């Protein structure tokens, strides 16, 4: 009986197990549905997410002729001064004063430096004294002997003639007495010798008188004149050396570099990095500037006809300057396979500096009137080449990538020339992704 009663008990455990299975299944289904919904949301968001892109604005268009006026060649180089001068001293000396500094503008003839000049002044004084001495000697020779000196010579001649007369009388008397046997032969010889001496003295003094009257010889005059000119040249040289201690600006221009300080020694010979200085300042006329370019030999023929040049600099890319080819090297550079040319900047301003980077675009000549009418110009823009995909580009408009077909027409230093398809001012997408689609949502990178 008890066994039957135990068998009549309800098994609640089995019931709980049967009830738990449907609940677990429902929870699993709910989780799966929730995860699917979340994934769908993320997928939709991903499909609608904007692609980040790099954007630049297309510059304003420029006008070029349909028959010409396009860039035929672009080259980069450096701005140089057409005439750069290193001012050196003509004499050796120590700097006593310097009146300019880097960047100063100077006029031709303006004093830049003064050197110590004590020795040069002393040399001028010495040479001036030598010249005056020789000039006095030349004047003395030119004027000849004084009248008093001539009269003295004449008196000496007359005195000698009187002595000659006395000697003649004494000789005659001695000869008579010698013939009479009163005087000896020795006395006669003495009287004869005295007479001969008197004759010789008269002749000698007469010649001196004649020379006093005639004055100096022509040879003497020529010789002293040469000495005077030599002394005058020495004085001029000493004065020039003294003047050279004052160093002046040879041209009007700007001081690019100052190489000396007060107290430094300057020499005219070759010097190294240390010791005496060889030059004082470097200067140039910054109103006469050029752009130095190395043109490839393959591109050099494009410059035939001396095309117009447009010059820009990296420092001021928005400023342009007109240029003209001024100099072409007569020989090419074999190692670099280039030809050097220099383009003159027609109207430089104070923004341009030597050694600045510069880009020169050579423009084909503008067309002349054809059949009674000039060719209409067309508008072009220049865009970065990285924005081009085949024959089209993408622009960003209202946060969407819009595909634009374009027509290109050559290249310049700033990119590719576009003759149609863009008008300027568009937000151009650079380096667009290869899978970018027309109308796809995009956003500009910050």
What does it look like?
The protein is built from 6 helices and 23 strands. Helix 3 packs antiparallel against helix 6 (218-243) and helix 4 runs antiparallel to helix 5 (185-214). The strands form 6 sheets. It has a 6-stranded antiparallel barrel. Strands 2-17-21-20 form a 4-stranded antiparallel beta sheet, with no helix packed on it. The chain has a 4-stranded antiparallel beta sheet with strand order 4-11-9-6, with no helix packed on it. It is α+β, with helices and mostly antiparallel strands. The chain has 4 domains: 51-65 and 374-444, conserved putative lor/sdh protein from methanococcus maripaludis s2 fold (Beta Barrel); 71-83 and 287-363, Elongation Factor Tu (Ef-tu), domain 3; 84-116 and 245-284, Beta Barrel (OB fold (Dihydrolipoamide Acetyltransferase, E2P)), CATH 2.40.50.100; 125-239, Helix hairpin bin (Helix Hairpins). The chain has helices at residues 2-7, 12-48, 118-143, 147-179, 185-214, 218-243; strands at residues 51-57, 62-65, 71-81, 84-87, 93-98, 105-106, 111-115, 246-248, 253-258, 265-266, 281-284, 289-296, 308-313, 321-328, 338-345, 357-363, 377-383, 392-397, 400-405, 407-412, 415-420, 427-430, 442-444.
């Amino acid at each position: 009986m008890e066994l039957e009663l135990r068998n009549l008990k309800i098994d609640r455990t089995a019931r709980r197990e049967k009830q738990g299975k449907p609940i677990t299944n429902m929870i699993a289904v709910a989780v799966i549905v929730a995860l699917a919904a979340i994934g769908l949301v993320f997928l939709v968001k991903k499909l609608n997410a904007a692609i980040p892109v790099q954007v630049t604005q297309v510059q304003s268009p420029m006008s070029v002729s349909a028959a010409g006026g396009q860039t035929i060649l672009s080259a980069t180089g450096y701005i140089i001064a057409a005439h750069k001068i290193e001012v050196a001293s003509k004499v050796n000396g120590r700097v006593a004063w310097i009146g300019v500094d880097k960047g100063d503008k100077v006029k031709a003839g303006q004093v830049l430096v003064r050197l110590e000049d004590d020795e040069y002044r002393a040399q001028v004084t010495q040479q001036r004294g030598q010249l005056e001495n020789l000039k006095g000697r030349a004047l003395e020779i030119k004027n000849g002997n004084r009248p008093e000196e001539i009269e003295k010579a004449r008196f000496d001649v007359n005195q000698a003639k009187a002595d000659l007369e006395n000697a003649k009388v004494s000789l005659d008397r001695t000869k008579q007495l010698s013939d009479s046997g009163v005087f000896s032969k020795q006395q006669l010889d003495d009287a004869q010798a005295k007479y001969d001496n008197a004759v010789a003295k008269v002749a000698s003094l007469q010649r001196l008188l004649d020379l006093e009257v005639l004055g100096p010889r022509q040879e003497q005059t020529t010789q002293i004149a040469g000495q005077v000119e030599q002394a005058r040249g020495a004085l001029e040289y000493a004065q020039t050396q003294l003047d050279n201690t004052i160093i002046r600006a040879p041209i009007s221009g700007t001081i690019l570099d100052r190489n000396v300080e007060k107290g430094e020694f300057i020499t005219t010979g070759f010097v190294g990095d240390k010791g005496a200085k060889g030059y004082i300042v470097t200067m140039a006329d910054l109103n006469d500037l050029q752009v130095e370019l190395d043109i490839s030999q393959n591109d050099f023929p494009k410059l035939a006809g001396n095309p117009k040049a447009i010059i820009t600099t990296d420092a001021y890319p928005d400023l342009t300057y007109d240029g003209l080819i001024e100099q072409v090297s007569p020989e090419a550079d074999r190692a670099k396979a280039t030809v050097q040319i220099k383009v003159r900047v027609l109207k430089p301003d104070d923004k341009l500096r030597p050694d600045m980077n510069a880009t020169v675009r050579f423009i084909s000549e503008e067309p002349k009137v054809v059949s009674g009418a000039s060719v209409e110009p067309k508008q072009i823009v220049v865009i970065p080449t990285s924005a081009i995909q085949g024959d089209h580009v993408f622009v960003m408009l209202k946060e969407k990538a819009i595909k634009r077909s374009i027509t290109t027409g050559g290249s310049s230093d700033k990119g590719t020339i576009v003759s149609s398809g863009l008008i300027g001012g568009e937000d151009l997408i650079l380096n667009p992704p290869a899978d970018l689609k027309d109308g796809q949502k995009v956003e500009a990178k910050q």
